[in-house]
Amino acid sequence: MGFPFHVLLSSTFGTFGIVWQETKRGPKVYSVLLPDDRSPVENLVQIAFADSRHQTCPTIAELGERIQSFLAGEAVDFGLDVIALEKCSEFQKRVLLAVHRIPRGWVSTYGRIAGSAEVPGGARAVGRALSRNPFPIIIPCHRVIRSDGELGGFGGGLGMKQTLLELEGMKFSRSTSVLTNYEQNSLLTLRPTAKGSRKLLKQKGIL
Q1: Which pLDDT value is given to residue 193?
Q2: More confident position, 183 or 7
């Protein structure tokens, strides 16, 4: 296994980072770092991955472009073959795999994920596992909310979480709770639409 590398890319929300390594099975992503008002991604890379070098490759470049498109409001599906899931504990892996199955336009709750993944410790344990999700966006933890409809947490901040959900068609009450209807044992929002994505980003001052 080689030295870690990182690449910094621009998006509608700000700069994000991808930390990766070359392995015998090809490039593997070890972390996706989202824009954060508290600390620039450049600083996070220097602190958490001080020995990494700035470098990309075709696989990582393509992934970066797909994340950029996703953050701009486009419908993008992400596979799991490029991420280093083996770095996660078996417990966290079960949670992440359950969350990866949540499709665009849907949300689930921490409690439902706990039940689906048979996670000991329930909703709080799921919340702790997702707070350390190394692969946000690829593993769409922004689609997991509290049972009362409130957003819960997110590494990129609650403003980013709400905007991502709105781009996927979610509707919110005045108290910023997600409006949902129960269907097929999952939480389904109002019919999603991607037509207003660019307009929404402009309204929020992101574009």
Answers
A1: 39
A2: 7
Sign of CA dihedral 90, 95, 101, 103: negative
The tokens of 199 are what?
């307009």
Percent of the chain at pLDDT > 70 equals: 84
Contact 146, 152 (CB under 8 A): yes
Active-site residues, by number, are 141
H-state helical runs in 18-148: 41-48, 58-71, 90-100, 110-116, 122-131
Question: C-alpha distances in angstroms, 103 versus 8, 26, 192?
Answer: 27, 27, 11
Query: CB neighbours (10 Å) of residue 17?
Result: 23
The number of residues making up the chain comes to 207
Q: How far is CA 116 from CA 123, 133, 139, in A?
A: 11, 18, 16
Query: Which DSSP letter does residue 136 get?
Result: B
